[in-house]
Amino acid sequence: MPYNVIVLIKQIPDIDQMKTNPGTGEPLLQNVPLRMENLSKNAVEAAVRIKEKNGGKVTVLCFGTDKSTSVMKEAYAMGADEGYLITGYPGNYPSVTAKALASKIKEIPHDLVILGNQSADSYTGLLPGSISAILGEPLLGNAVDIKLQEKQVSVVSALEDNNLEITAEMPAIVSVAQEINEPRLPPVLQIMAAGRKPINQSAASDLQVPEIKTLSNRAPKSDRKRIVFEDPAKGIEEVSKVIREAIR
Amino acid sequence: MKVLAFSDSKTILAQIISRFRDDAEVHALTHDTEFTAKFGAAKTIGMKGDILSGSVAKAIEKMQSDEGYDLIAIGSTVTGREVAGMLATMLSLHAVSEVNSVNLDGGKITTSRFFYGGKSLLTEESGAKIAVLAPGIAEAKESPGKTEVSEIQLEPSAVRIVSKTDKKGGSVDIEKAQIIVSVGRGLGKKENLEKVEPFAKAVHGEIAGSRPVCLDYGWLSEDRQVGLSGKKVQPKLYIALGISGQIQHIAGMRNSKLVIAVNKDKSAPIFEEADYGIVGDLFDVIAKLKEKVAQ
Fold it and tell me: Across all residues in chain A, what is the average pLDDT?
């Protein structure tokens, strides 16, 4: 049977290209390109595979800014059918993001909501639980495999010490782990077609941003000696002494 | 002050109790009362029933309305983060996650957590009443203090467990290891582990690995993965072999006392996070290091 799947995606600065100020250690975000968050890609891939197998529709939601149309187009190129961009993202406040996304989710009929388990920039992992609680839909978390049968969704949830196979009735929320799939690289034709596809855009209203005072935000201090031997023979001589000392 | 501590990992739970028991009345919610009772919480509450995030969140919601905790401290695991996200909504409380240091001061809480995938350390002051604490928040120390043990029954969840498969490995706890020999992509193939094992044995080290080695290629079991999404280790000696040093990996080994890196690429970022580095073929280097160390 066909399924209506909503995917939640996030746009983040390309962390690998981000540098920190050598003097103050503060992150330098100017001119850092924006990209789709890692697990968001896995989430889109998981949804598109469900559609390819069972039929149905993939709707993408992004809580971002005016600049987030690029990730929406990327999701289109991967096979998403429709997209809603909610602008007004005030930064990393999971409770605010959860409310903004959930209010849109409520307007869209769905069987499944798929999102990444923890985003690559902030890593809070709070969003899946918060969305689940707002919508009153069960959460099946950190999935490495999703199976659908009639109105039942089953996932293999990768926990720290074991893999748990869990099941619930849809509508349900599924958060995915990186191991669930290898996100596709869409062909050029699809990328071009995606550029012409309309994006539904609206502004978030009534955001209640919690009061948080940033005391510091700097590269963690590293006091390593950084003695690097380019001559292995000399390095082995010196480092073996260090190891012998350390393991005594 | 009253703190509720919960984790489905009894190791992290013991650390959380140890962190707060001197400053607060700690109530610990656990699936293993016998183990948890040793760490000096004022109350140890055993959960009966399946530990699923929805059921645990409901139980904590009720406990919060009965007890009015100043802080709900939750261990950072998959289940823990889900519970925290649910509670933040259910109780309308601010939650802060993946915290690796925490200080309570009156109604305010100061927390530090990694941001931008570990590239920065973000220290914030907020009114958060829910904190998800990363492993290693404190050293778990047993306490002779008396604890009152009770039990609660978890409500069934809309999610049902079909089956449970233990992950292979399971016998090793690299978070406690004093010496770690960690391998990265530079290992090349799984069979090459045989060349690393004698070296690890010679330095009395446990073998660990980076994310690609443990998850993408499966050369090592997942419980040996060091990194932001894996184990956070703090050995006295960390030897990184063929590990490039992606920031996600550094975040898992940053608290090591002494770091030695071997990599054939002299511009590998791991050398920035090493006390000593050798540029060269890792198999060559460890074979010779093994001989020298044994002398």
Answer: 95
Q: Is pLDDT of A139 > 60?
A: yes
Exposed, middle or buried, A242 (CB in 10 Å: 0-12/13-18/19+)?
Answer: middle
Cβ of residue A90 closer than 8 Å to a chain B Cβ: no
Length of chain B: 295
Structural domains of chain A sorted by starting position, each given as residue range(s) with its CATH number in brackets: 3-203 (3.40.50.620)
Q: How far is B113 from chain A (nearest CA, A)?
A: 9
Q: How far is CA B280 from the centre of its chain?
A: 32
Domains of chain B: 2-153 (3.40.50.620), 174-294 (3.40.50.1220)
Helices (H), chain B: 10-20, 33-36, 53-67, 78-90, 193-202, 211, 247-253, 282-294
- Closest-CA distance, B39 to chain A, in angstroms, reads 22
**Residue B99 neighbours by CB distance under 10 Å:** 24
| Greater model confidence, A17 or B168 | A17
Among residues B157, B3, B18, B20, the alpha carbon closest in space to that of B70 is found at B3
The pLDDT, as a whole number, for residue B189 is 95
pLDDT band at B107 (very low <50, low <70, confident <90, very high): confident
8-state DSSP, A197: S
The mean pLDDT of B71-85, rounded to a whole number, is 97
Strand partners, A149: A152
ipTM confidence score: 0.93
CB of B247 within 8 Å of a chain A CB? The answer is yes
Chain B residues in contact with A129 by the CB 8 A cut-off are 53, 57, 81-89
Q: At A192, which helix (H) or strand (E)?
A: helix A188-196
d(CA A59, CA A91): 23
Taking 60 as the threshold, does the pLDDT of residue A210 lie above it?
yes
In 3D, which of B130, B158, B147, B156 has the Cα closest to residue B46?
A: B147
Residues B149-155, mean pLDDT to the nearest whole number: 97
In this structure, the number of other CB atoms found within 10 A of the CB of residue B62 comes to 11
| Structural contact between residues B17 and B5, judged by C-beta atoms closer than 8 angstroms | yes
Residue B114 pairs with which residues in a beta bridge?
A: B121
